[in-house]
Specification:
Elements (H helix, E strand, L loop, with lengths): L25 E2 L11 H9 L14 H11 L6 E4 L1 H13 L6 E4 L5 H8 L4 E4 L19 E4 L11 H9 L6 E4 L20 E6 L12 E4 L2 H14 L6 H11 L2 H24 L11 E4 L6 H10 L2 E2 L1 E2 L9 E4 L3 H19 L1
Parallel strand pairs: 1-10, 3-4, 5-6, 6-7
Antiparallel strand pairs: 2-8, 7-8, 9-12, 11-12
Length: 355
Amino acid sequence: MRDLSENFRGIEPYTPGEQPQNSDRIKLNTNENPYPPSPSVQTALRSFDCGDLKLYPDPNMSALIDALAAHYGVGRDCVFAGVGSDDVLATCFMAFFNSGKPILFPDITYAFYDVWANLFSIDFHRVPLNGAFEIVKEDYYADNGGIVFPNPNAPTGLDMPAAAIEDILKNNSGVVVIVDEAYIDFGGESALPLIEKYDNLVVTRTFSKSRSMAGARVGFAFANPTLIRELNTIKNSYNSYTLSNLTMKLASAALSDEEYFNETVGKIIATREKYKLKLRELGFEFPDSKSNFIFATHPKYRAEELFEALKASNIYVRHFDAPRIDNYLRITVGTDEEMRALTDFFEEYMREAEK
């Protein structure tokens, strides 16, 4: 066969976190929720009529869109949904970043942004975080073709106040600004109230983190109706039937159980704060996370060595071999028992290293 590679895109793909299949592992590497979905989701799953699977799902996702609009107090024409926030964000890239000018996002952030930019032939510029890993709002006042950043940022966990986001919106009125709020439920200040004031704002969310449904793949976005219509135009240009009948039913059920949602998010926040103190006692340093993970470094021990030693003991965290952050570990906040196992491992590792 002749070489066909000259016709390939040649994209460097996103590298997801490892998904170990052994049942006795402690998995703190992909920012999943350690608690199961709401009992309401389990009830909806048991009552689902499998006969519905023979039918195509509603391309307008009406029941889910209505549930999201009611839950968050916005108009249904201000809501878009997709297959996880990755699908929603990729659709946003296709819909809004077409000016020919470079889009802006942080140099240390969600690694999918530059992958999408390359995939869709969008010029981009990585804006450096400052020495404290903070987004500097003034750095986003330059001429650009759009802006995207997570709040709280990933993998640092630092949040940005809504007032600073509003300044970015004011200074970029001619382009779309996407605020990726995958982790907002764990303590950050949401930009959602600003969509009524700024027609260039898109806020994306996910069921994967705070609602314990990473395996279901449900994401959504809020924006003014004009932007939502454009997102639907793009979606319907390549895949009208995005979410399954089952997934939409389960997602709607999750929204109905706010008590369980608050309980599990509260547990994660309490565990995060408790183990921030413990990790500091062990000598770790990290930004003040408002997410469901801690981005930690230790002045005495190389992150890569700790990562490999943890993995050998069946404890999985995330290590990024990237400039500025190659000596950090991103540790998902698990249950108290999982976090205790992690810190017990560190204590033993350090004792052995001091011998």
